[in-house]
Sequence to fold (376 residues):
Amino acid sequence: MTSRRDFLKAGVALAAVAAAPHAAFAQAAAPAGAALFAPSPGKWRDFEVVTTLNVAPVDGKAGPAQAWVPLPSYRAADWFRPGESTWKTNAASAEVVTDPHYGAKLLHLTWAPGAADPSVEITSRFSTRDRATDFSRPGSVAALSPEERALFLAATDLIPTDGIVKATADRITAGKASDLEKSRAIYEWVVENTYRNAATRGCGTGDVASLLASGNLGGKCADLNALFVGLNRAAGIPARDIYGIRVAPSAFGYKSLGANSPTISKAQHCRAEVWLDGFGWVATDPADVRKVVLEEPPGKNAMDDAKVLAARKALFGSWEGNWLAYNDGHDIALPGASGPKLGFLMYPQAEVASLRHDCLEPDAFAYVIKASEISA
Fold:
């Protein structure tokens, strides 16, 4: 892994920010006459996300501290452009590390033994916009390279493509001819047969085989979208999860599908893509359909509710650009860590005295993530 890392030393001065701090949160409701939920490519939007860590002792035990923070590294010419990340820190070292398999980038920080109040403030900029696929107009799309196809068909530690996953995919896609028909059938199956479980911690674990074997198909985005990805891969269709965080309200007025405060410390969300011949990478998010069912006011909505139907129709082929994409990595080994590798990298991580912090408890960790839209 070391031979393929990119190392950049800390000490980069923070650039001045010409931003309207809460501009993205000024209009959470859809304007009069707007479509219910119909994202489409349009204007690019510029955002800034500031992640602040103050690494506390773990279970009262102090000691040498280190942290690993995901940086925006995913890039897609049609909808996401990562910008510069800069930081201020009292760490003894800070290095940008690149995962050798997926290209996921993280900032690795280490503090000298006995350092008081280990802390860092990371500022990341990026541009994004809505995206949508017109399935009535297939085009000439460059094929995936053999290496890319193999990567996005491969099993991961939490997403196997054999056994119960393969058997389930075969049942869902029986009689379907094209990859588009198969993937749409998988999407509809996930929407129909899973549910969002409010009791699931964070975004879930993404353990697809265990989810299917349990017969209890409840979870959150890292579970339900990983299930969609695994079923597609088992059906021979390249697919991937993209791990990120919501940064702004939904322009269509969906409270459940946006960040409704400038503080987004608990707004992590993963989405999914599937590769379809004639269309390339296609946006999908069956987990957000189930989130609309459970959480969109007034809550516990019927499957034939107008907002549910609109989201269900749109979220196979489109999504809204109010979200930061960190990476599409799996099975991430944190350099220098004492604890286990990660199934995915979507939260800040830290260890103190070789003990891993609970990344799902930002107030105890402690970390705060804030987002703002940058004015033109």
